[in-house]
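Page 42, continued from yesterday. The earlier attempt failed because a stray header line got pasted into the input along with the sequence. Redoing it now with the clean sequence only.
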Amino acid sequence: MKKIFPVIIVLVTLSLIGTIYVQYNWLRTMLADKQEEFKRTIVKSIDEVGTELMDQRNAVPALKNFRSRPGFRWPSAEFNMELMRPPTISQKFTWYVVEEKLRRSLNNHGLKNINFEFAIISGGNSSPMPGLKSRGFMSEFEKV
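This time it went through. Structure tokens are written below.
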């Protein structure tokens, strides 16, 4: 009996250590899965809002092809192209409208009461300054 008691204590200790190790790994895996799900939800929400903004931006009524008087010419072909070009997101929407669209999309995906800042950067500019940004974007950007 005296020889079995230390063996039992060692086996119970190993069992307890194994159980704690399994639970630790389970919690670590669960946390990683939740973080990945959170990232996917954020990306999905942003993608939906981006698609919605692009669809609304491109839904500009086409300019009519007016018949001009003989001898009348438009100032230039570049001017014609500029008139036909759809407006950019920052020209068409205010920061408040974009923020509300993002908030609604995040709420629809179960991410209520999440704080965020955003900026929309035009792809054609050589400088990375945002064309449209939320109120606190620059202060949060400077922290990074």
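Notes: Residues 87-144 form one domain.
Reminder to self: strip header lines before submitting.
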